[in-house]
Amino acid sequence: MSNLHVIVAGGGLGGLALAQGLRRAGVSVAVYEKDASASFRNQGYRIRINSDGIAGLRAVLTPQAYEVFVATAGMPGPRMDTLDHQLNVVHPQNLPADPGLPGGGHLAVNRMTLRQILLSGLADSVHFGAQFTHYTTDLSGTVTAHFADGSTAVGDVLVGADGVNSATRRQYLPRAQVMDAGLRLLYGKIPFVGQEARALVPPELLGLWTTVVGPGRRFVGLAPVQYREPMHKVTARLAPDIELQAESDYVTCVFGARQEQFPCTDAELFAMNGEELQALTLSLLEGWHPQMRQIVSGQDPASIFPVSVRSSVPVAAWETTAVTLLGDAVHVMSPAIGVGANTALRDARVLAARLAEAAGGRPLHEALHAYESEMLGYGFDAVRESAKRGHDLVGQNPLPVPEG
Fold it and tell me: Which residue intervals define the domain FAD-binding in the entry (predicted)?
């Protein structure tokens, strides 16, 4: 099917990575994103990129864009320690490092920077302000995507990359469930520029990810993003056509607890401003080591926002059609092992390769089935592993026991 055209609903990291891979393979693609622009809302800060994510980005990006990704990534090493609330190390951990990968396969990346890299070269393919609502198919198998403004788009394949609240999944796979994991997270950033800021967080808390767990399984997660070169110098040296916003070093600081640990309803929690969320966090850290309270006090209040942790419930394989799913739309998971974005990037690499095969003559149904068979294996394995670690460490709700 040499004239294959792919519609992607959703312009997050996974959807954009898929579009990059398809463009690189010469496959026609159009991405439709409901947000008005790439910077319309806060979508998080630091994300961990592991070997799967690195392999995915290396496969889908142009060589120049991939080099920009590597040059803008922090390399904090493989340490992922767990401490108690008095800062005693209770579980030191060093992940295996791969000397053949940048940073040994352990990178800390600013989400917005990565999104800007993934948007590079796609200006004519990404359509913002397009809220996907549903799809229809005709007897020939052609898929028509429908949007809230009444517009439509026609293609040979529809990929639902529209996140945890996926409209594609609701229509295509209504039996698939997304459960409340019982945790609420308050994400924030600590500016990490200047001696005073750097004195706030000691080096032993600046590994790839550090978890500090206290009474009631309340916890604080810390992870640095430290740049090795200013953004404008990176792009001037490697890819002048890629535009990146200037960024300064920071430490992601995440407070989390089970929902019932918060002295307020979800509605009240999600209505709070940054100053109120910071004050709430400090009230829930009474009795913790003074240094941890100082660290949380160092957050920029304007950066703090709440998140409900949710998880997909693994489902059995479905009958392959011209509609498929990618990333959080199919296998959203808790951040307990930090592989959600990496799994979406792996999806993008695998699906781009299979669709390129379809464009080269492989039957489309066969190519999509091959993607789904592989994705459902590693995707739901990651969901299960994330749920288990989240349950064991901080009391996340366990996944339901499969029937039978």
Answer: 315-383
